[in-house]
Amino acid sequence: MLSFMLALVSAFLVGLTVASGILFRYRLSGRKPRTPAVDDAAVRAILETGVLVTDEDEPLDLESIDEEERRFWSEKWDEPEEW
After folding, report:
1. Measured between alpha carbons, how far is 6 from 12 in angstroms, rounded to an integer?
2. Could you tell me the end-to-end alpha-carbon distance of the chain, in angstroms, rounded to an integer?
3. Rounded CA gap, 45 and 35, in Å?
4. Measured between alpha carbons, how far is 32 from 14 in angstroms, rounded to an integer?
């Protein structure tokens, strides 16, 4: 009886693993690859002007990052305790 239960649980886990793998592959196949923001025209613009300006959304809020960095470095730190 114990070996039957062990085989049943093992079969269930194998089935669950296979189903998870299939679902993962299905989700990955539905994603569209992201086009690079820097193409040949952008490289030419960088070489001519030294700056790249794009219409893409800024992935990070640079102002909040700067503010958080200022806050971090302005904190008072306790001196380490000597043993």
Report:
1. 10
2. 61
3. 18
4. 30
Separation CA 83–CA 79 (nearest Å): 13
What is the total residue count of the chain? 83
Report the predicted TM-score, pTM, of the whole model to 2 decimal places: 0.37
In three-state form (DSSP H/G/I as H, E/B as E, the rest C), the secondary structure along the chain is CHHHHHHHHHHHHHHHHHHHHHHHHHHHHCCCCCCCCCCHHHHHHHHHHCCCCCCCCCCCCHHHHHHHHHHHHHCCCCCCCCC
Amino acid residing at 16: L
Q: What digits encode the pLDDT tens for the residues 8-51?
A: 999 999 999 999 999 888 888 777 666 666 788 888 888 999 88
Domain ranges within the chain, ordered by starting residue: 7-31
